[in-house]
Amino acid sequence: MQKLRVSYVAGVTPGKWMDRFVERYPDVQLVAARHDDGDILQLLAEDAADAVFVRYRGDSPKDATRHVIPLYEELEVVCAAKDHDVEYYEESIPASVVESFPQLDLADYPEGVGGIPTAMEVVASGAQVARVPQSIARLFHRKDVIYRLIEDGNPTRIGIAWPAAMEDTTLVDEFIGIVRGRSASSSRQASVRQDEQQAKQANDKLKAKAKAKAQEAAKKAKQQAKSKARAAGSKPRKRR
Questions:
Q1: Is-contact 179 160, C-beta < 8 A?
Q2: How do the pLDDT tens digits run along the chain, 240 residues long?
Q3: Rounded CA gap, 198 and 25, in Å?
Q4: What is the C-alpha separation between 219 and 229, in angstroms, rounded?
Q5: Which of 9, 90, 128, 178 gives 104 a disulfide partner, CB atoms 3.0 to 4.6 angstroms apart?
Q6: 156/17 Cα distance (integer angstroms)
């Protein structure tokens, strides 16, 4: 049974894409898992995943070992405790104001010490604020924590990556097509291109066969005509 292994960072919600993939390819085993600890791109290097949804800032993490297609941008927000000064801003807050508050670094809260939930507990205490992608704020929402968009914040991007050395990318291509909104009948889908190629090859074979048959019939007719001509030329002439 074919298998496709997909991992994704927290904040990505790939459920709808996975459901569509399973609907289109019920004979393929789709294994999906969220990766919260460490560099998700390392899963590709270790052959622990066929494709990953990666979060990055700045330049694309694409290199000689992996392909990366950018998908969408995430806005940056600041998370703070209820009753914090941040709450006085209705929708967004200037970046200069956010920088004036004590900052929490999510890198200081790996999975071994509780990860993002523990970081949000610190935020809820009012000790520090945390600047995170909006999707993270939504995923780890707490009643005692609020968040506001940061004006001129530092956005992040979500992209999908897969190994450059992968020999057969058919399933990855199919999944990426679904993520990018292509329909099952889209000519850009790998399966559709394969079907079209097979149909073209079959059609070319039929054309070649018909052409060969026509050439053979023409050759045979020409030979018969020559035979008749020779037969007519060899008849004895009548005496006058």
A1: yes
A2: 899 999 999 999 999 999 999 999 999 999 999 999 889 999 999 999 999 999 999 999 999 999 999 999 999 999 999 999 999 999 999 999 999 999 999 999 999 999 999 999 999 999 999 999 999 999 999 999 999 999 999 999 999 999 999 999 999 999 999 999 987 655 444 554 454 455 556 566 767 776 778 777 777 877 777 777 777 766 555 555
A3: 19
A4: 15
A5: 128
A6: 21
How does pLDDT run across 55-97, given as a tens digit for each residue? 999 999 999 999 999 999 999 999 999 999 999 999 999 999 9
d(CA 179, CA 182): 8
Residue with tokens 């066929």: 50
> Could you tell me how far CA 147 lies from the centroid of its own chain?
30
For the chain, the DSSP string reads --EEEEEE-TT---HHHHHHHHHH-TTSEEEEEE--SS-TTHHHHTTS-SEEEEEESSS---BTTEEEEEEEEE-EEEEEETTSGGGGSSSEEEHHHHTTSPEE-GGG--GGGTHHHHHHHHHHTTS-EEEEEHHHHHHT--TTEEEEEEET---EEEEEEEETT-S--HHHHHHHHHHTT--TT-TTSHHHHHHHHHHHHHHHHHHHHHHHHHHHHHHHHHHHHHHHHHHHHTSPPPP-
Angle between helices 190-233 and 170-179 in degrees, nearest 10: 120
